[in-house]
Amino acid sequence: MAYIGKEPSTGVRTSYSFTATGGETSFSASDTGKEAGGKALQFSDGEYVDVYLNGVKLKHATDYVTTTANTIGSLSALSASDILDVVVYDIFGVADTVSKVDGGTFDSSVIFDSGLDINGQDFVVDADGDTKIFASTDDVMQFSTANTNRMLINNNGCVGILTGSETNFTTYGNNGVGSLVRGFTVQHNSAASYVAEFRSEGNNANRYGLILFYGADDNHSSTATAISFLDGDGTSQGTIASTNGTVSYGAFTANHDVYLPDADKQTGYPYGTLVECVSTTYKKSVGTNTTLERGIRYNVQKTSSKMSKAVMGAYAVKYSTFYEQGDTIPNGKVVGDEKVVDNPLHQVYILGDGHILCNNETGNIEIGDFITASSTAGIGMKATETGITCGIAREAITFSNSSETKLVAVEYGIRQFVAS
User: Fold this and answer.
1) End of a domain among 71, 89, 107?
2) What's the domain range around 408?
3) DSSP class of 234
4) pTM greater than 0.70
5) How many domains does the chain have?
6) Which residues contact residue 228 at a Cβ distance below 8 angstroms, ignoring those fewer than 6 apart?
7) Strand 406-417 vs strand 311-318: parallel, antiparallel, or unpaired?
8) Band of pLDDT at residue 190, cut at 50, 70 and 90
9) How many CB atoms lie within 10 A of CB 130?
10) What is residue 188's predicted lDDT score, i.e. its pLDDT?
11) Would residue 54 count as lying in a domain?
12) Helix/strand/coil for 399
């Protein structure tokens, strides 16, 4: 017969059997020597105790009392070999349970010593049921808030953030999932916002940036690529690589940050326009507003004279900044719109690969010709006189008339040309 009680192994009641030696009027926890199993009598409420003498049930408060803890007292004196049986019933309430069929709510923490198996069902973690952990398919775990998938872990160890697939943040090496085979991929699609930011702060020079370990353990006897640059559709833009202790950058173009005259600062110049240095200025610290000794910036304009010795390089582009989340955005503007900056910075290419706008003031251009400033503001030409040049032509150009200008592919660099 099954019982329900404090512990299923002991049941709802405990029985004691005492054998009298003669003259006893009470039995208590100290009478273990007279109890058949050597048990110490124990009960918490005399109302839940039945007492039998030689098989005849005694009446509580008439034939015996339980006013003393764990004691059956006020018995008529027993004879030797009389048997007193005591049955103690545990006091219990209806179990505080949650219905298997109807469910319910746990008001306090629940500890599972042997794990928890919810057998493929959603694990809901908020009051309105829209934040949960669930398995969309076998061996795939997903996390959602506001009924929107936020994170996924698939059976290859890929982790997807803010998506229902493994396309935003992927780790665990080359697992061949979908189109992603990188060890770590972060995908971000938000206007005017960078994909990542790494901070190592503390106002001390001992806070470092990034370290890259890559390639073979042989001083890169074969070229090893550290960083590849691609545009949005995957077209390669260049790399940073190393071979035998030398780091290479390609394709490579270096620039100076410059300011243009007020009349030109918002529109800039056509790509390849030659500019000359007018004066220098310096960057200032954001935190202290102090001038940075090595933070040189240049005030420039279009080259103003033939063979200008102040020529610096070729105009590239204006730096653009855009409104981001958290900015104070003017009426009519939204996140992602370009900001109008009072004195925007521009780029001038001074070293590496690029182009210079040229005319035929000194004739057609051949590969290897030195390029210098012409008599036309901002336009280059082939150097034929001794003086400062800013590039070497890397393509041959033929002009059809004297007013024509063309972009000429060059290798930038300030050099002294000596006419032969």
Assistant:
1) 89
2) 256-417
3) -
4) no
5) 2
6) 236, 238, 239
7) unpaired
8) confident
9) 13
10) 74
11) yes
12) coil
